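Notes on consecutive records. When two proteins share a document, each keeps its own sequence and its own token line. Never mix them. Below: protein one.
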Amino acid sequence: MSIKAVILAAGKGTRMRSSKPKVLHEIGGIPLLQHVLNTVKQMDDAEALVIYGHGGDQVIETIDHDGEWVEQREQRGTGHAVQQALPFVDTDDTVLILYGDVPLIQQETLNKVLHHGKNNEVGLLIFNMDDPTGYGRVICDHNGNVQKIVEQKDATDHELQCQSINSGIMSVPGGKLHQWLTDLKPNNVQGEYYLTDIIHMAVKDGVKVNTESVMDEAEITGVNDKMQLAQLERAYQQRCAEQLMQQGVTLLDPQRFDLRGCITDLGQDVCIDVNVILEGKVLIGQHVRIGANCIIKNSTIGDHVEILPNSVIEDAEVGANCVIGPFARLRPGTVLGEKVKIGNFVETKNVNINAASKVNHLSYIGDATIGANVNVGAGTITCNYDGANKHHTTIKDGAFIGSDTQLVAPVVVGENATIAAGSTITRDAPDAQLTLSRVHQFSKDNWKRPKKKS
């Protein structure tokens, strides 16, 4: 069976109150439309076609989709939108209708809808609501057979009592879809071409409409405003948290964890404290502990690493048995070897620090290579920027950098060298020697502190 997934993504999203096209708003750091496309990619023999309109150039530039992009120049209803895809649909295809602003639909659910659409029949995803106000109703006869779908604005008082609502997601035989969409008429209050009218046509033609009920309302919930966006964000994060816990991760509070991207690899015995945010692509090794209020983005965390609270790690590689933080910031290009210690209020950028070295307190290390077993004292700075260009600092194995040292790059500190506290190093420091630079200290007698003028 060849499946054409037609994803409707042309709407403006006026209620979002944003210059950004609605389908580009994000849940879990991923655009709404991308969520749907990612689900389709998981399905066998499925090819996605995206019907785009408002903000089309921006949508195409942002979304990762190598299939067909089909423009809907006028927004004249869902039926009109699907009509734009007909030139790409063969009569022997099965067409799966999806929506770019309904991001949390699951592959398993779609497979069930497709199963109901076998044998030249229609599969329709429905949901039973206690309060279906605002949704189209799925009207059945006394035997439970679907007869039609009627929109809220067009429904009679009796039809409004129906609690089965149309999700809009359906599978339709390609040949029948060609026929029914050609026959669509805008005979409704809105003057639009309703895709839902094809259900009545199917019944009229003797084509069975099979329904599948979804249990999780979040799967069929669309985003129309920022409140719904926030609600689905929480539903998505809850789903992510449950999946991680099923994989063995300890989340100290699943309600206070956010995944805005994906975990590409995950070891055992990982423990994550509250208010942790993982962004982009993150790899986490075995026996990792992540403290409260940490942000980790596009980084690799090795085995037995401990990340203490309030640390930020971005585009970095952290080797096994490292300790990071608290209040540390690893900026892009940071690569740490095994057993490295990065302490409180330390910032690193574009730096390679080798095994068992320590930068414990209040330091900035940028554009540098640090050897193994190096100790960098508190308040040390690599002065890497001269106002126009960046320069490199090299600190070789076994060196000891005293507190409050400025290393003015380009500069090399030799193997097992010692830099005395308070030094400003502007020339290379030789191996295994003490290097220092200090202003002469003196005291002035008969000196009085200045006083405020009355």
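Protein two starts on the next line and is unrelated to protein one.
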Amino acid sequence: MKKFASLFIIIAAVCWGVIGIFTRSLTEAGLSSFQISSVRCISAGIVLSAFLGIRSPSALKIDWRDLWMFFGTGVCSIVFFNVCYFTTMELTTLSAAAILLYTAPIFVVVMSAIFFREKITPIKIIALVLAFCGCGFITGVFTGNMGMTPLGILTGLGSGFGYALYSIFGRAALAKYSSLTVTTYTFIVAGICVLPFCRIGDIIRNTAAQPGVLLHVVLLAAVSTVIPYLLYTAGLRHTEAGKASVMASVEPVVASAVGIILYHEGLTLSAAAGALLVLASVTILNFPQTKQTGNKTHELQTS
């Protein structure tokens, strides 16, 4: 499992990168951005609870004093970053919102150094810069007008901070629980918290009225929520939080590729350069560090 940790994280980023396929159809069906986010949380919580209850009921047992960890991953991270992200998209451009979201690796590296004593190495700094610049080129921020506002910048940084918190709270939870338990309770807590605000009746009516919507809800829950969060959480067990967050920057590369292949969006020189920068950041994080540390790659030791 340990040797596949980086692969798990990259596959998770790929799954997150194709989310636009499902969200686009759900938006066309009349669901708001917040409702789509709520559908992700609620459906993932139900699916994971059922799966864990059948496969390993004992894994559903947690110490209730540890609920703060899952409140951290579910509410402080997933719910908070989604609300901030969607608000930023309304206040600024989509590209600006995306690049502000991908300040997350910077927050992760700094917080990991503070809370987990992870070293901020030159290679990690170079990878951070490459990934951030790559995301900037992919989203077009470096080649166009971002249309920024002070509140938009604040909510955008909030989305990056919230996104980063999953790696921090998730790592703390992994010291005591399995990746499956952590992911399950993350979405149980998140789902419970969004339920009163998402107008679930409207979601059910839209889903019932349009049969194709249900399929995309299922695919959204499975392909772009349950599977990637399970893989990312499993990879996080054996990978530094900062390194994992930078590798997840593959997501906008995949999202850009989906737009080009499926929706015939133009491939710009800027986007191509950005994709290469992100891939370069992932490459230098894995190969040079592996050579330097041999079989003693930095990893999270579980109790």
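For the record: Confidence is low (pLDDT under 50) at residues 288-303.
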